[in-house]
Amino acid sequence: MSDLPVIPFQRSDLLEVPPAYRELRIKEGIAKVRTRMGDEVWLVSRHEDARTLFNDSRLGRSHPEPDKAARLSGSALLGGPQGDIATEKAEHDRMRKLFMPSFSARRMKRSPSTWARWSTSGWTTSPS
Known about the structure:
Blueprint: H1 19-27, E1 30-34, E2 40-44, H2 47-54, H3 88-99, H4 105-120
Antiparallel strand pairs: 1-2
């Protein structure tokens, strides 16, 4: 086994960016790391790199051979690839259309005060 950093990184506070993540972002931006399951994966930590990769149609959440895909955890639901590679784009487009109204300009303009009120309430009430 190589000497790669293991994700998720240790942190002392849930809201704090782990120091190891911050260090990798400064040094490399895109770095090879190891998951808890022992698989090697690429960690993308810079915003511009992530934007570029999210727009690359060759990358997605599914895998042509799910049994050979890297796993982030032992979770059957979220630990590995999700969806079917043949229908991933159509499913993404369907979900985007479904959620788009929730992120309309009107709702986003309303958001700053709503989210501020919600966050100061201790996250116990809905931001209706």
